[in-house]
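Notes from the 1:1 (GR / supervisor)

We went over the backlog. Supervisor wanted to see one worked example end to end before approving the batch request, so GR pasted a single chain during the call. The sequence is below; no edits were made to it. Supervisor asked that the structure be written out right there so they could see what the output format looks like.
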Amino acid sequence: MPELPEVNGLIEFLRAEAVGSVVVGVELASFSVLKTFDPPVTSLPGLTITDVTRHGKFIDIDVDGIHIVVHLAKAGWLRWSDKLPDTKLKLGASNIAARVRLDKGDGPTVGFDVTEAGTRKGLAMYVVRSPSDVPGIAALGPDPLEPGFELRPLLGRKMQVKRLLRDQKIIAGVGNAYSDEILHAAKLSPFAIADSLDEDEIVRLEAALHDVLSEAVEEARGKPASDLKDDKRTRMRVHGRTGEACPVCGDAVREVSYATSSLQYCATCQTGGKPLKDRSTSKFLK
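Structure output shown during the call:
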């Protein structure tokens, strides 16, 4: 799933490539991708893209005051093309859910496709007059890289710190992968309870949240959209690396599996050497 650093990379890429371009058309190839009806997508052709910004994991494309907002969900992506095919999209014919054609005024129509792999469809596109009209944006918690962000007041909850980091209503932009990386850097169990963290643990978590995300944003900066996913995978220290050696201590990276996801951690670095039970309601193997 694209998270804050990758979405930020996409934003910067789109801002460089698309701002100033005129929308030629928006084609939909999925019944479910568009979640709004007013303004209609037919109101966009002829308008100019004036900015591209981010709200948590949401991409916000400002088209002369009308906003195309995209949430890539678990398996979505944005694919840029310097020359889109002339043929129109066919409903359900590929993994392309929507296509935005643009005119930069210097040749063939450019633009981007919004794609989604797999059969579980979570990709969402909205055309709205204000980003706050998107329910997911209206409910977002604070952005961890915004000036003035404070983690400490958000920790007074009796919930696992892994869940807290991923809850978009508490902190915007962090998902499964970066929560694993943040907790590894902070030397904290994903099952630790947020309101039970001591002062030293809070300080470590604050530093890890800022440092891991800031470093990832810098790594993603300047890369083309096509490279961002692979770049993310190469930077992961524990997430997605079950069975590999922890880069800090050399112990094997372990996994806890759920019905639709999993987490990775290092027992030596994070849980005092105790393996976590492979279900969400347990703390440690007895």
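Supervisor's comment: Confidence is low (pLDDT under 50) at residues 280-286.
Batch request approved.
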